[in-house]
Write a structure and sequence with these properties.
Elements (H helix, E strand, L loop, with lengths): L6 E7 L7 H12 L3 E7 L5 H11 L3 E4 L3 H4 L6 E2 L1 H6 L4 E5 L2 E5 L2 H12 L8 E5 L3 H13 L3 E6 L2 H9 L10 E5 L3 H4 L5 E4 L16 H4 L7 E4 L8 H8 L3 E3 L1 H17 L6 H12 L4
Parallel strand pairs: 1-2, 1-3, 4-6, 7-8, 7-10, 8-9, 10-11, 11-12
Antiparallel strand pairs: 3-5, 5-6
Length: 290
């Protein structure tokens, strides 16, 4: 029940109608019986600064930021964490001592299923990341935190790849990064213990497509993990190919849940976050079978 005492959390983006964060965050808040509500706020790019001023004036405790605000919000914050600085993007903002503090929980969300489920020496791992956009930055930072021996980012534009590589030169985290054009993928796949799709290929309107063909997927080592940041359809064509090749798969739904849980920990500092409740709320919303 929302009253005048209910504290405000939310997410900003434009557009924001598609966001699943309110579904899972409000499910968690209700389960914890806390007097908070999580609201989607449609904020156009030119209104970002005034939105932060308005949030401060009405006592918003914290909020998530999604496209197109993850990068442009940086200069409007008083402080950002080292991981957000490394990624060059903020997705979680909290209010502390009359200041907006930004961090990035996408990295923690990406890492969670890898660290909790798979017991392996990541220092012996070669990671191959498909795509060199904003999502790839969080994945590269996550792979660096894991301690991967080598990280390859694969893209189709040589200039953008070089810009991507150079952007990490002054990073606060050590990144053993190399970039490769798509034509060299056949040489990289046999080494790839971790293959991550950060491209939009496989989601609507390209839901029937994959960034790889089935034969290419067969070149992965037997112990490889194929990780797709896309969570609908479930499984994506990319992960179907991996399953056919006998490769372990992870989809993007768990990253979505875990980055949201990490944000709740920052804002609410609960003893525990009901991750299962958050996950089940998304399964129901998306019409998936558990």
């Amino acid at each position: 029940m929302i009253t005048g005492k209910t504290k405000l959390l939310g997410i900003i983006g434009h557009p924001i109608e598609h966001s699943l964060s309110p579904v899972m965050q409000n499910a968690a808040i209700a389960h914890m019986e806390l007097d908070y509500v999580y609201i989607p706020f449609p904020v156009e790019p030119h209104n970002l600064k005034v939105a932060l001023q308005a949030f401060a004036s009405i006592g918003v405790v914290g909020f998530n930021a999604t496209i197109p605000h993850k990068e442009t919000i940086l200069p409007l914050l008083s402080e950002i964490s080292s991981i957000a600085e490394a990624v060059g993007a903020v997705n979680t903002v909290s209010r502390k001592d009359h200041k907006w503090i930004g961090t990035n929980t996408d990295v923690e969300g990406f890492l969670a299923p890898l660290e909790t489920t798979y017991n392996r020496d990541w220092h012996q791992t070669v990671a191959v990341v498909l795509g060199n956009g904003g999502a790839a930055r969080a994945v590269v930072a996550g792979c660096a935190k894991l301690g991967c021996a080598e990280i390859y980012v694969v893209g189709r534009n040589a200039q953008k790849l070089n810009e991507f590589r150079n952007s990490w030169s002054n990073s606060p985290i050590a990144v053993n990064l190399q970039v490769s054009e798509w034509s060299s993928l056949s040489k990289l796949l046999p080494q790839a213990n971790l293959l991550v799709n950060t491209t939009p290929i496989g989601m609507y309107p390209k839901a029937e497509e994959s960034p790889l063909d089935t034969e290419e997927m067969m070149h992965l080592p037997e112990d490889a993990i194929a990780y797709d940041l896309i969570y609908k359809p479930k499984p994506t064509k990319f992960l179907q190919q991996a399953q056919q090749a006998g490769i372990t798969t992870i989809d993007g739904l768990e990253m979505l849940v875990q980055q949201g849980a990490a944000a709740l920990k920052i804002w609410l500092q609960p003893e525990s976050v009901p991750v299962d409740v958050m996950r089940q709320s998304l399964f129901r919303q998306l019409g998936f079978q558990d």
